[in-house]
Write a structure and sequence with these properties.
The chain is of the alpha+beta class and about 80 residues long. It contains three helices and four strands. Strand 1 and strand 2 form a beta hairpin. The termini are far apart.
């Protein structure tokens, strides 16, 4: 699926993100250094998750983690587990 910069996407009933990238990008696990290619929607959810982590919003962070577990388990295992 193609996304446009600035597009608002409702990912689930609890998660809404703004697309800030138009192409896939490699995101690296900050602890292991291992990278994984994410699509623009996955990048937006990942960015939201990391923002929640910094702001101690563990409820929304958990919802983002669950989204990754359900939608891209491999990325979850490499980037977030």
């Amino acid at each position: 699926m193609k996304y446009k910069f600035g597009e608002i996407v409702k990912v689930s009933s609890d998660i809404q993100v703004v697309i800030m990238d138009e192409k896939e990008q490699e995101i690296k696990n900050p602890y292991s250094g291992v990278g994984y290619i994410l699509n623009p929607l996955e990048i937006a959810v990942y960015d939201l998750l990391k923002g929640c982590e910094r702001l101690n919003n563990y409820e929304l962070m958990g919802k983002c983690i669950n989204w990754f577990m359900e939608n891209n388990a491999e990325a979850y295992m490499i980037l977030l587990d």
